[in-house]
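Quick one, T. Sequence first:
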Amino acid sequence: MPDTAEIAVVGDLTDHAAEISQKLLDVPWGGACVLYFDSPGGSPYTGISLMSLIRLRGLRATAVVAGECSSAALWPFAACERRLVTAYSVLLFHPMKWQSEDNVGLAEAAEWARHFHLLESEMDVVLAELFAVEPSTLARWMQPGRYVSGRELAEAGLAELVELKALPQPAANGRTGRLRKVRART
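Structure tokens:
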């Protein structure tokens, strides 16, 4: 039986986008994987890309927030079928931010502002859909931005709170616990 892939999502998503994307692509279509998060976020486009790889490839992903899962890292986290947090996990919800070190003209900056306003409103809805909550639930955390503990996230029904002890090892089918023996009928 193939092992469940384990993927570390650590540091700035933008700096590690190629590596994390390749590890997700190495998981077979519909395969199981566990993503361990300790990320302050990064580019919204990187977060959207990782979320898309998880969902479009039908990965049976489990997320574990080992430290921080903030900003753009929330999208791949929310895309996971199962989300685990500890009481010490921290998640920062905030409005999308745009920053550029490029020297841009006024017209281009205005276009970026228009685009980001549209993208922000669409992605807030997507995040709410992934978490299966009303957008108003997340809006309370988004404006002006709020650090949410793992315990609070679990109390809101968006993740499972786990103790800091060994988790059951996932089986090849993505479920935890012991495998059942099945007899083939002939």
